[in-house]
Write a structure and sequence with these properties.
13% strand, Aspartate Aminotransferase, domain 1, 501 residues, seven-stranded mixed beta sheet, binds pyridoxal-5'-phosphate, 17 helices, Aspartate Aminotransferase, domain 2
Length: 501
Amino acid sequence: MLQTVAVPAAHAPARSRSAASAHQRSPVIDALRAFGANGTVPFSTPGHKLGAGLDRDLHDLLGSRFCASDVWLNTADHDRTVRQAENLAAQTWGAERSFFLVNGSSSGNQAFLLATVAPGDEVVVARDLHQSLLAAFILTGARPIYVAPRLHPSLQLGLGMAAEDVAATLDAHPAAKLVVVTSPTYWGVASNLREIAIEAHTRGVAVYVDEAWGPHFGFHPGLPPSAMSSGADGAVTSPHKLLTGLSQAALLNVRGPRVSPARVANTVKLTQTTSPLMPILASLDACRRQMALHGEEMLERTIQLAGGARAALGRLPGIDVLDASRLGLPPEQYDPTRLVIDVQGRGLSGYLAETLLRERFGIAPEMSDTAGIVCLVTVSDTPETVQRLIRAVASLPHRSGSAAVSACPRVAGEAIAPGQQALTPREAYFARTRAVPLARAAGEIAAEAVIPYPPGIPVLTPGEIISDVKLNCLREGLASGMHIRGAADSTLETVRVVSGL
Ligand SMILES: Cc1ncc(COP(=O)(O)O)c(C=O)c1O
């Protein structure tokens, strides 16, 4: 379990016996068990009625127990049970209040901004924001003041948001209402959140962290400190990404005097489905129990496994694996469980390496870009799974001379430099638009987001003036296998630009 709310600390203190026994419980699982044990006959949603009406193939695929746990308790029982489970999660993640989310961290980003900023408010935000934060800007009408993450000069990889840059931007925008940081990044780089929080708080500004990729932070001294323990006022995190939540399971954590939990509670309700899949909520509760009782030992194994894999992969010819020292970062700013594997030394693009790994070796990386692939080692991995990854990467072919030198090897490098912002995302999103061929788009105002997926970080954001550099990055990425979301024309033959307000 992480620190208690009263005494923020980076890592778990010894817990009292009564606190430990509270964490043995799982209110959501208990409620689902009770529903089943009572033989309740539902005349309520969902209509498949404990799986009875489900298509047989789907029923077989999911299993009868899973189908029977997709039930609706009733509003009072549901709210009481989830609140109990959220309170245990708040203790575990070091928050004052935690909210269970069934629409992923995406919905937490939207809920938090809807709770804290209004149309026209300035928000200082790291430009490596996820598409869900961009959606939050469109929904709220807030004005992003983009800060470029520091870039590693040769690796073209974001090194996080620098506290000095936050301070300077806040000084230039004294009316700013919120600082938003994405930490860690998809590539495992954490910002120095403590320093950022100090700079923001001394200026009276709250800090929100998109910690989707850091649900495990703070549970082990070998991992970066968590957002909550670093003084952030709010943070969203995705236990489904790196712990054991089912897909979509996420947590929104808040603490301190700068954010109203009651207002966040309202916007969480606004942004969630009213028909949550109970197994998602149960998985959050169960994940909390695992982390509260065994988090540190589970993560110790994970860090060891990932460390062994990093060393073995790094010895392979033509393969390079990032770590904190290669990036010039202190260890507490890098997630050692993330394997960012550069395959350019094999004459391959990351996109091609991913295809080969999937098709020839049955290995599914998290993502790829021009330079390489990203693989996640989690609490669920074993020496065997990690060995399979190492053997598969070792077997990737060498292609001499086939990899051209890339101008934008990483989608979170040059490709996401903050462009000149002519309109807010909301103004551009609701403007009159027209489609222009990509080749003729330079100088126009983007009306839509152009988002390589994964990682879901927009290259073009609505409202920015399209630059030649970004068009080149997009062309190069498309040629080597990048997938685009956000744009109406995902082939990017055309892009939608603003034609009038
Ligand atoms: C930085 C970041 N924030 C938020 C999200 C959204 O998380 P979720 O998939 O849980 O909605 C992602 C997804 O990849 C992400 O990379």
